Amino acid sequence: MELGLQGRRALVTGAGKGIGRGTVQALHAAGARVVAVSRTQADLDSLVRECPGIEPVCVDLGNWEATERALGSVGPVDLLVNNAGVALLQPFLEVTKEACDTSFNVNLRAVIQVSQIVAGGLIARGVPGAIVNVSSQASQRAVTNHSVYCSTKGALDMLTKVMALELGPHKIRVNAVNPTVVMTPMGQANWSDPHKAKTMLDRIPLGKFAEVEHVVDAILFLLSDRSGMTTGSTMPVDGGFLAT
Fold this sequence. Notes:
Blueprint: E1 9-13, H1 18-29, E2 33-38, H2 41-50, E3 55-58, H3 64-71, E4 79-82, H4 97-125, E5 129-134, H5 147-167, E6 172-179, H6 185-191, H7 194-201, H8 212-223, E7 234-237
Parallel strand pairs: 1-2, 1-4, 2-3, 4-5, 5-6, 6-7
Helix pairs in contact: 1-8, 3-4, 4-5
């Protein structure tokens, strides 16, 4: 299926590892021009070696002022993938202010800020665009020790719908992908315990966690004109978890 991404300019946050890195690699292979945003310079350096021609931007998206300086003049962007995220796991009674602030700043506020920059540019140019927010199955199901993470992703799902509502008249589509556990460095760190992993796997009809490419394929579909009538959706990539 031809996705028609050749020559489009895409911005991907959280580009250094996992889903973000896989998305950059896939967009680069599809002929898109990619701006790769990460807070880790070493990850960007290795990504540039793998994907010559991409534009690296090193910034901590949890810092509003630094993000404005880094991306405020990023130039025309057609496609945006808001993938940067943190998962700080704590029992509810031990949740800290720092975990709340960091999680909401990166998982939600940064999505608002970067999307405002990109959508504002699209509207000023009078061209259509597409935004994909990387959410989680945890937006729709309670998971032990994930009270802050689940809350940020629940908020992200609703933000996706409101963005779709307000940006639709400008021909900007906004969707989310909602993966199950993905075997990224972050996923492996949080789900390496076999007993903990089994409790989740037992609730997934396909009986396995997702690989990065499963999520990347969904993201590319939602960025492409092949999903031209789809906006405001939250697409599960969860092996059936949300059906149970």
